[in-house]
Amino acid sequence: MKVMRTYVKGSRAERELIDYFSSSGCCVIRAAGSGVNSLSPDILVFRRGMQIGIEAKAWEKENLNIDREQFVNLRKWEEISGINCLIGWRRNRKPWVFVPLAVFRENSKSFGINWENANALGKKLEEMA
User: pTM of this prediction?
Assistant: First the structure.
């Protein structure tokens, strides 16, 4: 049951971003299989002169860790597509922060960042559109 709650929470976070970027004049695509495979970012955002891939994470803990396989696939996707990929992270009652893959720290099983560093190194939602 926990997996289903996590999926619903993640889908809600993705829809929130889709609505925001769409209402800001961007074209937005939600990746097929988003939340199921880890081959591409959850959403793609386009506007003249801007194209980004966003992997959306609604995660309450102080540290965000992305599974090694998913992170490597996102870097590979970024390299092949030429489109910057960001991790969009939101905690309850906290604003979204968008963090480039390059600032995540590698550990034995994953790549991670803490909330303080994400806020210092990432961009806020209003800086994105």
Answer: 0.89
